Amino acid sequence: MISEPYKIIKRYVAERSSASNDTILQELSGLEPLRDETDPLWDTDAYWNNEAYRFLALADLVGMRRLRSGVRLLLERACFGDPGETMRGLRHCSEAVFNPDWDGLAAVCLSLVESPRAGTRLWTVDQLTVLDDLAAESALRRALSDDIAEIRAIAKIGIERLERLKSK
Question: Which domain holds residue 158?
């Protein structure tokens, strides 16, 4: 019987509870970026169990331990898409790490917003959209020209939010 996802993630977290921060970051840096949501590997239990849930457990640890350098590593490995609605929670981990230093989080995102990886761009633009940081405006405007419609749509929302913020 396949265990429930939260139990698998919880087990991965527990297995790493005594690991040092450096060990957690090394494991994360050794992970291959997650495949795009359309990849057939997402249809296999093995990919979920060995890659996705491990990534999510490491994200939890990054958040719990407030490992700033881990946020970049996570964004660099995030998949394009949101298989099983798993990636949308990634920003909560990032926010937990940087709270209340939103400028610090924005700086990490701004350094990645033009990544060659679509998943990195998607989740970076998504994070910038909710930060409401005026410093992100030019990056969000550049993202309006992204090759991928989903990224352009999120950037548009971010620009609209900034416009409302500026008009107050």
Answer: 102-168
